[in-house]
Design brief:
The protein contains nine helices and 43 strands. It has 615 residues and is α+β, with helices and mostly antiparallel strands. The protein folds into five domains: 122 residues, Methylamine Dehydrogenase, Chain H, CATH 2.130.10; 132 residues, Methylamine Dehydrogenase, Chain H; 114 residues, no CATH class; 42 residues, Ribbon (Laminin), CATH 2.10.25; 44 residues. The strands form 14 sheets. A four-stranded antiparallel beta sheet has the order 3-2-1-28, covered by helices on one side. A four-stranded antiparallel beta sheet has the order 4-5-6-7, with no helix packed on it. A four-stranded antiparallel beta sheet has the order 8-9-10-11, with no helix packed on it. The radius of gyration is 40 Å and the shape is elongated. It starts with a helix and ends in a 6-residue tail after the last helix. InterPro entries: EGF, EGF-like_Ca-bd_dom, EGF-type_Asp/Asn_hydroxyl_site, Notch_Cell-Fate_Det, WD40/YVTN_repeat-like_dom_sf, WD40_repeat_dom_sf. One of its GO terms (molecular function) is calcium ion binding. This is EGF-like domain-containing protein.
Length: 615
């Protein structure tokens, strides 16, 4: 009946609040631990160092890879572990749950398909092109697995014919994450090394990239994670300065921020609704707010000195909430919710929890529920059943000895207390025409659900949030308007950007949003022997041929020799010219003197010839 749909919607919403922080961590201290927030629920020592991990959310399996080549399946329902039947001795580099039946493990130059429940080897595929595998991600819609290795390649592997379709060189190693074939977040090289890009998988399985950031430093990226189509998070490690960073990137504007620097190296990241979990190299675990990466807490998760190699969400109740709150007829839903007639059990696979509710779930929208479809007597019966909500008879004998299920069952019972302890109030809600749709989403976690005019539950939003579900953040800084690492400061309805600067130096950026860069070459002439260019943080000179130095002030030996030769030649030429002029001067002077002597002689001859003798 439709009444059950409403109940399940409420239950899913409350489960989402009470159990959204359940996750699992694995460490080189040989411990697998399941946490609720920062409280340890249960742990398991597998006597082998953990190198990688994945989880099966449907069956409550934790699959870990170890440094001695073994796969181990920790099955929570029976609280038992199963090891693979193989004889591999090399370290398991990555493990990937493909579906509820199979998983894939990556090693050095080969991969192995394993059955999930008993870890029996299905097929081993060896190929040197696999290289030293670092990470694997499943593109289930395309039946493709993307593999990144230490040889700086992204390998496209087909699950249809179990062959490598293409090897794409990305020139960088690290983790990767994928949203769809057009949205692959992975390391790359923009100019030097240690950058990240968005890749698009083309039809020929080649990759085209969009540069996101040129870090101008040699980074490796132990963890990359996509939050949504607009934002992603990353942990990086500078191999030169040995410093670690943690920050976020805006995929649309390519704006990025190193939110934390000099943080202990983060090896793994995952997302649980409103917060981010991070596993550190020193064994600690941190929680960050998903919206602004504000640090919530850090605590010792594993033995000091042993790294928390991987963290994974373990119960994703947000999936239940989204499916039941917008329930409609579709094949995907039918495969996840098994519906029986009355007197049988409805099983919600996402939680592994069963209830003995005698019901048939109708795939009809909540908005169609009317008062006439819900009777007080029927609702009382349902609430009575809710009081005995459990894990099913098949598990009743195990709960007493299974710490995890005991604690999980206690949480569920606490979550249902709002219904079982306030039956009359709940009956009034069910028998009314009150519109509950806005509150099913828990006001997006940004408000409080309140009854308005006895006809509709509405969200009373916290400060700085608006919308029917409080889904809109109106803080000016929420959209990250400050570019180039500028720090945004909210000023009521406006904002101010403090442009980024290092070591108390003047900022390289100006403008309202720090969008304009200062012309670093304005006063740099490079000694007139080169051309100035902006290197990112400094003005640098590209020298002409035969010149070197920071300011192109150093002449090469060849130029010095040329200059000496030119100088010497010039001096010799000047001397020759001077001597030539002097020679010409003396020649003219001699000629002048000769002319004067000749003229004197002529005058003397004429006077002698004119003399006469007279008696």
């Amino acid at each position: 009946m439709l009444r059950n749909l409403l109940i399940l919607s409420f239950l899913a919403s409350i489960l989402n609040l009470s159990m959204a922080k359940i996750y699992v961590s694995g460490s080189s201290d040989m411990q697998i631990k399941i946490w609720n927030d920062s409280s340890l629920m249960v742990s398991r020592n597998i006597s082998q160092r953990i190198t990688c991990m994945d989880v099966d959310l449907l069956n409550y399996f934790v699959i870990v890879g170890t440094d001695n080549g073994k796969l181990i399946n920790w099955q929570l329902e029976s609280d038992s572990t199963i090891s693979d039947n193989g004889n591999e001795l090399t370290e398991v580099k990555s493990v990937l749950v493909l579906n509820s039946s199979y998983c894939l493990a990556g090693y050095n130059e080969f991969i192995i398909f394993w059955s999930l429940s008993d870890l029996k080897q299905i097929q081993k595929i060896s190929d040197t092109r696999f290289g030293n595998i670092v990470d694997m991600k499943n593109l289930s819609s395309e039946n493709i697995v993307l593999i990144i290795n230490k040889q700086k390649n992204i390998i496209v592997f087909s699950l249809i014919n179990n062959t490598i379709l293409r090897v794409n060189l990305v020139n960088e190693e690290g983790s990767l994450d994928i949203l769809n074939r057009s949205f692959i977040f992975a390391p790359c090289v923009v100019n030097v090394a240690g950058d990240f890009c968005l890749f698009n998988l083309k039809n020929d399985c080649s990759l085209s990239k969009t540069n996101l950031k040129d870090f101008m430093r040699y980074n490796i990226f132990p963890a990359l994670k996509i939050l949504n189509e607009s934002f992603g998070i990353y942990s990086s490690y500078d191999t030169n300065s040995f410093k670690s960073q943690f920050g976020f990137v805006n995929f649309k504007t390519t704006f990025y921020t190193d939110k934390f620097t000099n943080i202990n190296k983060i090896l793994s990241l995952d997302i649980l609704n409103d917060f981010i979990i991070a596993g550190h190299e020193n064994g600690s675990i941190s929680h960050f707010n998903k919206d602004d990466l504000k640090l919530i807490k850090t605590f010792i998760g594993h033995s000091p000195g042993f790294s928390t190699r991987v963290v994974k969400k373990f119960i994703d109740t947000s999936l239940i909430q989204s499916k039941f709150s917008t329930l409609s007829t579709n094949t995907a839903l039918k495969t996840e919710i098994t519906t029986y007639s009355s007197e049988t059990t409805t099983k919600i696979y996402q939680t592994g929890v069963t209830s003995n509710l005698p019901t048939t779930i109708q795939t009809t929208a909540l908005s169609t529920i009317s008062k006439s479809e819900i009777s007080k007597a029927e609702t009382s019966t349902l609430l009575s059943n809710l009081r005995h909500f459990s894990f099913g008879s098949s598990l009743t004998t195990e709960i007493a000895t299974n710490t995890f299920y005991t604690k999980l069952n206690n949480q569920i019972n606490q979550s249902f207390s709002i219904f079982t302890e306030n039956t009359n109030e709940f009956l009034k809600i069910l028998n009314s025409k009150i519109d509950l749709n806005d509150c099913i989403s828990n006001c997006s976690g940004n408000g409080i659900c309140k009854l308005d005019d006895n006809s509709k539950y509405v969200c009373e939003c916290f400060r700085n949030f608006v919308g029917s579900k409080c889904e809109i953040n109106i803080l000016p800084c929420f959209s990250n308007p400050c570019r180039n690492n500028g720090r945004c400061i909210n000023n009521n309805k406006s904002y101010t950007c403090n442009c980024f600067s290092e070591n108390n130096q003047s900022s390289l950026y100006i403008g309202k949003n720090c969008e304009n860069k200062v012309d670093l070459c304005e006063d740099e002439k490079c000694s007139d022997n080169g051309v100035c260019f902006d290197s990112g943080k400094l003005a640098k000179c590209k020298c002409f041929r035969f010149y070197s130095g920071i300011k192109c002030e150093i002449l090469s030996s060849e130029i010095q020799i040329y200059k000496i030769l030119i100088r010497t030649s010039s001096i010799i030429a000047i001397i020759i010219l001077i001597m030539t002029y002097l020679l010409m001067f003396f020649c003219d002077l001699i000629n002048l003197l000769d002319r004067k002597k000749t003229k004197t002689k002529k005058y003397s001859t004429k006077n002698i010839t004119k003399l006469r003798y007279i008696n």
